[in-house]
Specification:
single chain, Isopropylmalate Dehydrogenase, 12 helices, binds nicotinamide-adenine-dinucleotide, binds 3-isopropylmalic acid, binds manganese (II) ion
């Protein structure tokens, strides 16, 4: 059956536009010649939106995202944004978007790619074979709790609160266990149950959910220990389930383990429209210099094909093309390792597109 894919693209700030361009070209290349029609519309978010529209995310853009089948986001954030009020900063736009879409399940896979193992600071035998996925609760917790400031001068106090309900924990735990069933069937739930009451509730509900998945091994780990084990034994993890804040922190650590924050993609599911974004930020230090690694953005495209459009074959093609290009020796500066860098954002993306194009030429030739 042919599908019409309606996509809203929010390139955002810094390296966001650099990697979004590549991601979209990869999506077009994998769909080219097929039965699926892609309709995409670019809109503003973050600092770019604030400058043009006076807000980091307009109501019109939210409405367009809600109408779409999926949203692809590059990155938000700008050094000058510290000067504006917190509610108007780029990050507020992103949090508003996630909340408006209602996507509570953020999947962040981290994989060690064999050809660039030396991009990791860890011994190759420690990192090799790492293949884990962080399931981050994305719609609640400390990010969306009551937040305020009181007092003046030395009496000033800032307060953030973390709240989790049974329903919120149950639904994200189910996502983790369902995912584990299709993987190595191990869930490690990460919390701080020795201190936080939200974590104690979290653990209790995760155990309840686990009881319905007797084929999946479930264990709990305190977040401080998990931060250490992730570096010592990254291979021991399969599905890592955690709250919004812990997921934010440990996903960057997982990125460090496999070599670069530029390698990780993500899917945010469970709401009205699915959202896809690389895990990295706007990287102002390398923005617009053709240095950003587009792999995280390309992985996010593969995840979109798989999770939203159920185009497993196309998702696999994108992943295989990525593996081929890495195996051919191409490396952006962040994963240069001993061999050194030999590609920029565009050249790396072009190589992936060329692999996909060559495959579809072959398919056409075979069919005729
Ligand atoms: P960052 O991820 O932007 O950058 C951290 C480091 O990683 C930098 O040295 C950067 O050059 C490098 N890096 C990031 N992406 C890369 C890529 N694709 N290829 C190669 N190297 C890459 O994190 P930060 O510096 O803490 O934050 C910068 C801004 O981005 C802040 O405003 C922050 O709020 C925002 N941010 C946005 C998102 C998002 O939009 N989802 C995520 C994280 C941070
Ligand atoms: C991420 C980012 C965001 C987060 C920021 C930019 C709000 O760090 O997607 O990991 O903390 O969720
Ligand atoms: Mn983050």
């Amino acid at each position: 059956m042919s599908k019409k894919i309606r996509l809203v693209v929010l390139p955002g700030d810094g390296v966001g536009p650099d990697v979004s361009r590549v991601a979209l070209d990869v999506l077009r290349a994998v769909l080219a010649g097929g039965r699926h029609e892609l309709e995409s519309e670019d809109r503003l978010i973050g600092w770019a939106a604030y400058q043009a529209e006076g807000t980091p995310l307009s109501d019109a853009t939210i409405a367009a995202c809600l109408e779409a089948d999926a949203v692809f986001l590059g990155a938000v954030g700008h050094p000058e944004a510290e000067k504006v009020s917190p509610a108007l900063r780029p990050e507020a736009g992103l949090l508003r978007l996630r909340s408006a879409l209602g996507c509570y399940a953020n999947l962040r896979p981290a994989r060690a790619y064999a050809p660039i193992l030396d991009a990791s600071p860890l011994h190759p035998e420690v990192v090799s074979g790492t293949d884990l996925i962080i399931v981050r609760e994305l719609a609640g917790g400390l990010y969306y709790g009551k937040s305020r400031e009181t007092g003046l001068g030395n009496r000033r106090r800032a307060i953030d609160t973390e709240a989790y309900s049974v329903t919120e924990v149950r639904r994200i735990a189910k996502v983790a266990f369902d995912l584990a069933r299709a993987r190595r069937k191990i869930v490690t739930s990460i919390d701080k149950a020795n201190v936080l009451s939200t974590s104690r509730l979290w653990r209790e509900i995760v155990n309840e959910v686990a009881a319905g998945y007797s084929d999946v091994k479930c264990s709990h780990m305190l977040v401080d220990r998990a931060a250490m084990e992730l570096v010592l034994k990254p291979k021991s993890f399969d599905v890592m389930l955690m709250s919004n804040l812990f997921g934010d922190i440990l996903s960057d650590e997982a990125a460090g383990v496999v070599g670069s924050i530029g390698l990780l993609g993500s899917a945010s599911l469970g709401g009205k429209t699915d959202l896809y974004e690389p895990v990295h930020g706007s990287a102002p230090d390398i923005a617009g210099q053709d240095k950003a690694n587009p792999i995280g953005a390309i992985v996010s495209v593969a995840m979109m094909l798989r999770h939203t459009f159920r185009l497993e074959k196309e998702a696999g093609k994108v992943e295989a093309a990525l593996d081929r290009v890495l195996a051919s020796g191409l490396r952006t500066p962040d994963v240069a390792g001993r061999a050194g860098a030999n590609a920029g954002t565009r050249a790396f993306g072009a190589a992936v597109i060329e692999v996909l194009a060559a495959e579809s030429r072959l398919a056409v030739a075979r069919a005729s």
